[in-house]
Amino acid sequence: MEQMISTISEMIWSTPMLYLCIGVGLLFTILTRFVQVRYLKDMITLLFNGKSSESGVSSFQALTLALSGRVGVGNIAGVATAIAFGGPRAVFWMWFIAFIGSASAFIESTLAQIYKVKDKGEYRGEPAYYIEKGMGKKWYALIFAFAVLLAMSVLGPECKQIQLQQG
């Protein structure tokens, strides 16, 4: 069983996935006409303008909240490991992937805003919502939600535990 899971994992998380992620990131970068560069000045201006939304959350607070959910042990350990093994070249490739990956993040955030729903005075928007509302495939949204639940409750904590034990 362990060998089968290892084989499947190697097939999924190997070169084809790398090319798929880079290709999709480049496609989104081109389709959005380099949104990462076009709105850079606006992003910096909004970040430091000090204004708050109706709920009292400033742009800087929203950024730090979003980053706190994305940066974890894997990001820190992964960057350190990449630099240790790859040297300065690794930094270039991390910047390249971050640049094209930010177009994918922009698309995902935009879809979440377009298809968000208001529930008891609060907005909710995530991939399961825009899969259901945008694509009209509730069954696919349910499969996605179940996969996320499985990853967050079983697979994710175990990976972090193993990484902390080895680290």
Compact overview of the structure:
By secondary structure, this protein is mostly helical.
Question: Which key terms come to mind for this protein?
Answer:
cell membrane, transmembrane, globular, 9 helices, 2 domains, membrane, mainly alpha, two-stranded antiparallel ribbon, 167 residues, symport, AGCS family alanine or glycine:cation symporter
Can you tell me about this structure?
There is one protein chain. The chain is mainly alpha-helical and 167 residues long. Helices cover 78% and strands 4% of the residues. The protein has nine helices and two strands; from the N terminus they run αααααααββαα. The longest helix is centred in the C-terminal third of the chain and has 29 residues. The chain is globular and about 50 Å long. The two termini are 27 Å apart. It is a multi-pass membrane protein.
Overall number of structural domains: 2
Number of strands: 2
State the low-pLDDT regions, or none: none
Overall 3D form: globular
Element order, helices and strands?
A: HHHHHHHEEHH
Within the largest sheet, what's the order of strands? Answer: 1-2
Compute the number of helices. Answer: 9
Rg on CA atoms, Å:
19 Å
Largest sheet: 2 strands, antiparallel
Question: How much strand?
Answer: under 5%
Task: Give the overall pLDDT as a whole number.
Answer: 84
Helix content: over 70%
End-to-end Cα distance: 27 Å
Structural class: mainly alpha
